[in-house]
Design brief:
The protein has about 270 residues and is an alpha/beta fold. It has two domains: about 220 residues, Phosphoenolpyruvate-binding domains (TIM Barrel, Alpha-Beta Barrel); about 45 residues, no CATH class. The chain has twelve helices and nine strands. The strands form two sheets. It has a seven-stranded parallel beta sheet with strand order 6-5-4-3-2-1-7. Helix 11 crosses helix 12. The longest helix has 17 residues. The chain is globular, with a radius of gyration of 20 Å.
Length: about 270
Amino acid sequence: MRSALYVPGDRPEKLAGSLTRGADALIADLEDAVAPDAKPSARRTVAAWLTTLPQDGPEIWIRINPGKAGHEDLQALEPGLHAITGICVAKTETPDDLTALDNLLPPQTALCPVLESAAAVLAAVEIARAPRVVRLQLGEADLCADIGVDPGADERELLWPRSQIVLASAAAGIDPPLGPVSTDFRDLDRLAESTRALRRLGFQGRACIHPAQLPVVNEVFTPSPDELAKARALVARFEAAGSGVVVDESGRMVDEAVIRRARRTLAQGKVTR
């Protein structure tokens, strides 16, 4: 998943148009994007939208509210839950928040907890190991408010929590986390720069709040032809040698760790939408 587009759950026209925007995944949002008094109608709107989904479209996720409201979200959507990939669980604090949803979900439904507090980030390893969890996501606006951080232009203040959820994901053996949204959808150059920084940290995709962000994010997380060619050459040389360590065309040592990274690059290159 290179890109995931958040779509307000109370906007049927945006939900309908989102399918052709170029996102690898769509997240119909029943939480922050919907005013409290509009949540009942948003549930009905998303439930109706789920009945119209094509078979070959992007992955479909739903971001539900925390606590009791999230249970109400799932109960309202129950007839269409078989059509979605998974649930993004807003403001997850502990693994118990996720296990409480288990009997409300079809067997194949995955979970993506959204970590939005200091407590959640510190519990990231345990949350990542909870049943059904396939990836984590960081909710940085709420996190910054919780810990009193005011990020600068290079966002270095968020390096530790970002690295923490990358490490927690790897330790739990789940997919790399989904990068945080950027609320400035007009400055695409800055978006590209910050997305490249996330990729260097170990993220392999990013959430978006506006369709204009999708081409930038998709490009950053799609390996270039040169990267793919180098990865193929490394894997071929390693497999042909039949030993634990070989030397690449530049004379540098290549071991199994380098080959794992090359194979990951090749896997990323198979994403086409």
